[in-house]
Write a structure and sequence with these properties.
The complex is a heterodimer of chains A (363) and B (474). Chain A has 363 residues and is α/β, with parallel strands linked by helices. Chain A contains nine helices and 17 strands. In chain A, a hairpin with a 4-residue loop joins β4 and β5. Chain B has 474 residues and is an alpha/beta fold. Helix content of chain B is 41%, strand content 14%. Chain B has a seven-stranded mixed sheet. In chain B, strands 2-3-4-19 form a four-stranded mixed sheet. The longest helix of chain B is centred in the middle third of the chain and has 21 residues. Classes of the chains: A alpha/beta (363), B alpha/beta (474). Chains A and B meet through α5, α6 and α9 of A and α3 and α17 of B.
């Protein structure tokens, strides 16, 4: 596991928060937004910036060249905003949410991190065609400012791609204009858990959520928005997958990909684990049916967070290495597996005693 | 609630209902009448809604998704990414039904010159496609392996992602050609009519030449594996189909395209019956397909084989946006995403069009490398390449899946305006779609198994569609 927010000790001559990119330069030549990262000893490393020096515990290795950091001087924190080697770097925008999903890995809190100006400064430092995630909580609860931010980024850096997770409850007809303008730069990750409205609503803990999603999809399709439809697999919706696949392949043909996702046992998912975990290593049948329906119609399906060995041979081609590197691990059992480099592996907090009953070397 | 426009067709004892977005279901005649009369009860309404036949109000999600499917089914890419080129018309064989006509191996003035090559590079650059497929046809293109090599080198030097397919009779596997084939992005397409005796009778003519072919085929298959090679048979004797399928399976090939000798080129004289043989061919074709289905069902995964024609028609039904095959799509606008370039630099919309021009039935050329595309002629052709507006096609339940093939009509009838249902193209497509929908309707596990196999290479018994019967005995 890699820690993305870190405590710092510093002698900075500013109270302002700022963004820096780690460079390989002589310290005297640094600009306001550059930093040099050196190791003091095995235990700490030092960042040198125009505003002064920062000391950080060296636990996950030195920051790499090109890494973008947010420095919050006042509260003595540093956030690893963009790591070049990461599969995706994500802004946690807010922990507030208007839904209460039974498998939420990040239960809502009244905390927001809407430092849009700082994020914009950081984005200016990103490499060409960089991809950024935005997640929550529910990012569109801050829709007005979020859209302003996205538009501003688009004006200054239209090479940047976003992957934004949203529950699709807050789009409105008036958003079509802006969405159309920026649609090709954003992939919206939107959850739909069942073709039955009540089942979806009870999973997300909000009455009317299903109808809202479908209503708002109409604004997304009209604006040419790109959607990654996400369905977390649970006991509650396993049986619905084939009919959900029918719904998608008839009425949501414009989505870019349907992601069927295994649980992340954290937050509410950990609490509700026994009630919700569906062990696909025992029976994959209906997931297979659902995939068949979409592939027959030439729609994309992806399996997220499914270790290869829990998936029947034929369907392994649909798995992706979806777990972010900072919270991903392999088990002792994985040593020697020839498929390891292609496998999503497990979440850092995966509990082997309560997990899949059949894991082992892929054959 | 309102219905999208729909069409219907008899399939066995049921009515097949389709709409322009390509959705379909089967029901009784009574329910069809109810649809026409808009006498739809709540149950039926819910079903129609689920199947994509209804919308609640204009511009709602269902309306917009219908529009999306419609656009996707009709859309043709607007950059050329697929080039079929004829670097030489010369050939070292003299096949009985040669479709393209050919020149003698030693003839002069039947080859591309340096100038053609340079203009060809310019054409590729101007189209600026991310991924280019170049198919080398002939004549026998390996007689000019120097041109193939130059194009291969040029694409890699210019960072153009290219897939090169050499359509060859494999008579001439010299070191130059072997060096080309060694590249991962180069593939071989060849003709295998069947076992040695049949292949020899129809193509190679003598034992020595036949042995060379099969030895070379073995060499390539052993060295590069099955994915390097695709093969096509041509049938003049329909009783040989099954034997040839078995031979393809034996060779380890994964796909076969069952097609009769085409009424083109030399075949016109030698096989005049090929002008109109739809019913005879269909009978042989469908019974062969059924036998192939049973074989696939019995065989292990690595011995299963797909039939390209069936796969192609199935994908037209199920895969929204499967519009890449020029013989089965509508609109079928010319020189949009693919083009044929002949040995003399002339452009043609399809290989068949090139053959027709070669034997002087019609001049189907649509420009040339030097002067570019003849856009006026292309526009004239395109107006007649739209099934959606053809009075004979607009009410056909299979129209969303079907295509238009003006070239085939001209080839057989010298004109494009005879009623569609009298054309070999229409009759052949009708019979293929009938066959598929009869299989879907009867839901025989062996058929469903093969439908899945052809759609996604995943042979299994789960129908790849939701509920498709409404209020029938099913």
């Amino acid at each position: 596991m890699i820690r993305l927010t870190r405590n710092i000790e510093h002698d900075l001559k500013t109270n302002q928060s700022f963004a820096v990119i780690v460079v390989d330069k002589n310290e005297s030549q640094l600009s306001d937004f550059e930093a040099v990262c050196t190791s003091n000893n095995n235990e700490t490393m030092q960042l040198t910036t125009k505003y002064g020096k920062i000391n950080i515990q060296n636990i996950d290795g030195l920051f790499s060249i090109g890494e973008v950091l947010l420095i919050f001087s006042e509260v003595s924190k540093c956030q690893r905003f963009y790591r070049p080697e990461a599969t995706i770097n994500t802004i946690l925008l807010t922990e507030e949410c208007d839904q209460l999903c039974i498998m939420c890995s990040q239960p809502p809190k009244n905390k927001r991190y809407d430092h849009f100006d700082l994020y914009f400064e950081a984005i200016k430092l990103l490499p060409l065609n960089a991809r950024l995630g935005i997640s929550g909580g529910e990012p569109t609860l801050l829709k007005k400012n979020l859209f302003k931010f996205l538009e501003k980024v688009y004006l200054h850096r239209n090479d940047i791609n976003f992957h934004i997770l949203s529950n699709c409850q807050h789009f409105e007809k008036d958003d079509i204009k802006l969405l159309s303008k920026i649609s090709h730069k954003i992939l919206w990750g939107i959850p739909l858990y069942s073709h039955i409205p009540d089942t979806h609503d009870s999973i997300v803990g909000k009455k009317g959520s299903y109808n809202n999603v479908l209503k708002n999809f109409n604004y997304l399709v009209q604006s040419g928005s790109r959607v990654e439809l996400r369905t977390v697999l649970m006991k509650q919706n396993y049986n619905d997958l084939p009919q959900l696949a029918d719904l998608i392949s008839t009425h949501l043909n414009w989505i870019e990909v349907w992601a069927i996702m295994q649980l992340e046992n954290y937050g509410y998912a950990k609490m509700n684990w026994d009630k919700i975990f569906y062990d696909n290593s025992i029976n994959f049948e209906k997931i297979g049916f659902a995939i068949n329906t979409l592939t027959a119609k030439r729609l994309n399906v992806s399996l997220y967070n499914f270790p290869l060995c829990t998936v029947p041979d034929f369907y392994r081609q649909f798995t992706t290495r979806s777990i972010s590197d900072w919270k991903q691990k392999y088990l002792d059992d994985c040593n020697g597996c020839i498929e390891k480099q292609y496998c999503s592996g497990f979440f850092e907090w995966y509990n082997i005693d309560k997990g899949f009953s059949k894991i082992g070397l892929a054959t | 609630m309102s219905l999208f426009p729909f069409q219907f067709h008899n399939v066995l004892d049921k009515k097949l209902i389709t709409n322009d977005a390509g959705e379909f279901f089967l029901t009784s005649e009574k329910n069809l009448k109810n649809m026409i009369d808009r006498n739809i009860d709540q149950n039926f309404s819910d079903f129609l809604f689920d199947k994509g036949f209804q919308y609640k109000e204009e511009n709602d999600l269902y309306w917009n998704n219908f529009k999306f499917k419609l656009i996707k089914r009709k859309k043709i890419p607007d950059k050329i990414g697929y080039y079929m080129i004829i670097p030489t018309l010369r050939c070292n064989l003299n096949c009985t039904y040669c479709q393209v006509s050919r020149a003698d191996e030693n003839a002069k003035n039947y080859d591309w010159e340096e100038e053609h090559l340079n203009l060809f590079y310019k054409l590729i650059e101007n189209n600026n496609h991310k991924h280019v497929k170049i198919e080398f046809q002939g004549g026998e293109p390996t007689l000019r392996s120097d041109i193939i090599k130059k194009i291969l080198d040029w694409t890699s030097a210019n960072n153009i992602k290219a897939e090169l397919v050499i359509c060859t009779n494999l008579q001439n596997l010299d070191s130059n050609l072997l060096e080309i084939i060694d590249h991962d992005n180069v593939f071989i397409s060849t003709s295998i009519d069947g076992k040695k005796t049949l292949h020899e009778k129809q193509r190679t003519e003598d034992k020595g030449t036949t042995d060379v072919f099969f030895n070379n085929l073995d060499y390539v298959l052993n060295k590069y594996g099955i994915n390097k090679v695709s093969a096509l048979p041509t049938f003049t004797d329909f009783s040989k189909i099954e034997e040839t399928i078995d031979f393809y399976i034996e060779l380890g090939l994964k796909s076969i395209f069952l097609r009769p000798v085409n009424y083109q080129g030399f075949a016109r004289k030698k096989f005049p019956s090929s002008k109109n043989q739809v019913s005879e061919w269909s009978k042989a074709y469908f019974s062969s397909l059924e036998k192939l289905f049973i074989k696939n069902h019995k065989n292990k995964q690595d011995q299963r084989i797909l039939e390209f024609g069936f796969e192609n028609s199935l994908k037209r039904i199920f895969n929204i946006g499967y519009n890449g095959y020029v013989d089965l799509r509508s609109p079928n606008f010319y020189a949009k995403d693919n083009i044929i370039i002949d040995f003399d630099g002339k452009f043609y919309p399809s290989d068949e069009a090139r053959m027709l021009s070669r034997i002087k039935i019609i001049d189907f050329s649509i420009g040339n490398l030097k002067d570019g595309l003849d856009s006026k002629k292309i526009t004239d052709l395109n107006w007649n390449s739209i099934g959606e507006t053809n009075p004979d096609c607009i009410n056909c339940a299979y129209q969303p899946y079907c295509g238009v093939d003006m070239v085939d009509d001209i080839s057989r009838y010298n004109r494009i305006d005879i009623p569609k249902h009298l054309t070999a193209f229409c009759q052949s497509q009708m019979s293929k779609f009938n066959f598929i929908f009869e299989k879907i309707t009867s839901m025989d596990p062996v058929d469903i198994f093969n439908i899945n196999g052809h759609l996604s290479k995943n042979f299994n018994y789960q129908p790849p569609f939701g509920k498709i019967f409404y209020d029938t005995t099913h």
